[in-house]
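Notes continue from the previous slide.

Worked example: a multi-chain complex. Inputs as given:
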Amino acid sequence: MNDGVNGVALVVFIIFFLAVTVIGFMASRWRRAENENSLDEWGLGGRSFGTWVTWFLLGGDLYTAYTFVAVPAAIYAAGAAGFFAVPYTILIYPLMFVFLPRLWSVSHRHGYVTTSDFVRGRFGSKGLSLAVAVTGILATMPYIALQLVGIQAVLDVMGVGGGEDTNWFVKDLPLLIAFGVLAAYTYSSGLRAPALIAFVKDGLIYLVIAVAIIYIPIKLGGFDDIFKAAGDAFSQTSPATGKPRGALTPGEASQWTYATLALGSALALFMYPHSVTAVLSSRSRDVIRRNSTILPLYSLMLGLLGLLGFMAIAAGVKVTNGQLAIPQLFEDMFPAWFAGVAFAAIGIGALVPAAIMSIAAANLFTRNIYKDFLKPDATPEQETKVSKLVSLLVKVGALAFVLTMDKTVAINFQLLGGIWILQTLPALVGGLFTRWFHRWALLAGWAAGMLYGTLAAYGVASPTQKHFGGSAKEIPGIGEIGYIGLTAFILNVVVTVALTFVLKALKAPEGVDETKPSDYTADAGDPGVAKLPPATAGSAH
Amino acid sequence: MPEAPEVRQPVAEPPVVTPIRVVIGLCLFAPFVAMLWVGSYAKVDPTFIGIPFFYWYQMLWVVISTVLTMTAYQLWQRDQRARKAAAEDGGASA
């Protein structure tokens, strides 16, 4: 694959990258408010985004570069099993429709910036809020690292960096530059930068997919030939496992895995801090509901993208690292200049979510660790300053992660992160609809889910790894193979419900609930919502 | 309502569960049934322009679920408007 530098593609890539950098720095002047030194401004873009900006922002946020590389890569490797991403992204939107408007409303009434802010306000428990915050930060870090893996894959195929014969500094220099620039404009522009860049990113992605899905099948002789070639390839026995490499449809045994992965991932998605950040930056409840009806366009694109995995097989793309399959397909199939556009789409596709994720993780740290535990009297200015610095630290951490450890480690931690983040669902979504759960029970349920999920994932071996080899395992009591995250989640709920009964019977002290029922349905224009309180109002009592 | 039209209620709270809300619920729940029942679509035939059933069926459901969510959104808007109007009428006459 390292057959020299693809000059034309590289030039196109650099032009797009420079354009995006300029946009990123100019974004700080876009819709600037008078008081820019607050977390509402830097970390939530002034909570002012309308339907279309939110659509691009969420689309850019949820469908990351890694998704674009990993979903077709999984299909390239094993066929049907990788396609679970499509039902997964179908199920997200009914869920979004149901619970996120409530989170939006209560967050506006009380000036919450993070999910942990809400959990603390609802249950009056700093411990539970800390658990949610730490889980969020832990789950987000490897996710940022994976965005780097996405950029690396593109750079690799273009022939820059990645070569094993050069020294590490030269090899990783392009990645360091890309991330340095990203860190700089995130620092100065906050959430406005990824919001504006998302327009470019998604425009490019839609263009590339539309071209790829028409142009490549024509070159390969139509979908009949593509699937026939893929079917032949999957039926061959893999030397590593002694079983066929994959299948065009999931067999009886793998259907449970498919369904539980789809459901578990869908439940987990809006627990991630970066998804919540994008939702809270929207202008009204209606913007969220309307987005749940227009965001599926991205799912359609994801499905088409998945089909590229089959095309890579039919086109005879041979890569040892599955992550390179799609970039390699682009390079083989497209003229050099358009391959450059496609690579730019993936590269910029990594920058947008990486920026939002680092902002989200920084907000969690600032609000729920720094302010709650270290400096309760922090002013909005101080909060913003800390958040900006932490957003840098988070990125450096992710970079160190990718550069020092094997790529599979990042992928493993990402799988683990999905399992972990799902364990915050009872506190968050439960809290949005009922206050029946006891705060200590929620904490115990969370701990049980985290512990089970981590241990179960540790015990999964794959042909190449002894531990953390995957995220599916036999479900105790059912005997089918299912997503560990979902099993852990059910354990979590059982523990939470059982302990709530016990604690209520014992009359254990409930925390103070600072919210009231009408907070959950308040909309823009209602009293206390239209004019946003300063970022600290939620906890200033 | 024919019975007891004269009784003036201070706050006319409509019931929480109404037919329109049941329909909204079904619209939002249907994709879960369709997608999690993997056995119903784990097959190759019939193919569509060479794409196995398994793949085009799920992509078709992206469209179906979008239509369902849009329907739910429209119904919800209508429900909210009706409730708001009812609440304002109640408030004006009280």
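Summary box: Chain A is about 70% helix and 0% strand. The beta strands of chain A are 472-474, 481-483.
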